[in-house]
Amino acid sequence: MVTNRVRSGPAVEIKQPKRADLVAEEIKRLITEKDLRPGDRLPREAELQQLYSVSKSTIREALKSLEVQGLIKVSTGPSGGGMVVEVPLDRTLQLLQNYLFFKDVSIDDIYKVRQQLEPELAAGAVPHLTDADFAALEANIECCDGTAGPDDRGHLVRQRQEDMTFHDILAAANPNPFLRFICELINEMIRQLIEYRNDTPLADQRRFGAANAKFHREILQAARERDAARVRALMIEHMTEAPKHVKRMKGKLRGRLILDSEIRKRARTMVAAVGKET
Asked: Which residues contact 272 (CB under 8 A, 6 or more apart)?
């Protein structure tokens, strides 16, 4: 006769979720059920206390947790409280980099993904580009042209970072939100995580900038002509050539975690800043 026997041994402690964490989950459920969008306000603290039968400190801890996740923004004062916000791309990048920190990801890996996605992103954006988009693309090319501006290493590195804004403008015009998100995330990785050695010849940096500007001008012209197939072909070539320049300049990914203090707003102010230097 076989009997089921429970093995004796040290007791396993099962940790219960903190009350604030449970409340945070309930507030997420509330946001989902009420279909709250960025800009919509949560109920006031007192209402949340009553709704979930918890103390003020528990509500505040739950709101702080959601704020750290980037889901809400909490303000103080008579009209204060929680407001739903769009999760910042920088916060998403930070979480992704935390994951990639323990993986062996190379610049080649990143550009192989770009070679697959970026041409489709750009081609899909062509029918939706506006006159304002074309003006922004033109301004970006002018400020990032490697043949222009002072012969200063810091300036040239900032130009290479700002090259990504050209691709961000195309991404913003693409109607596929998931493709747009992935490509913008990769752009931000390149902008924030690729660094170049200080002994990289300035001539190599200028050649890279000039090559980018040439491709960007050709892509812009094809986009103005609403030639999506030409834009796709040019972007494939661009994404094939770019990593060669990065490696020639001894570019590498910074293998470290991103600090909260380094997260910045993705306002497109670099075009103006670089333009003033040129």
From this structure: none
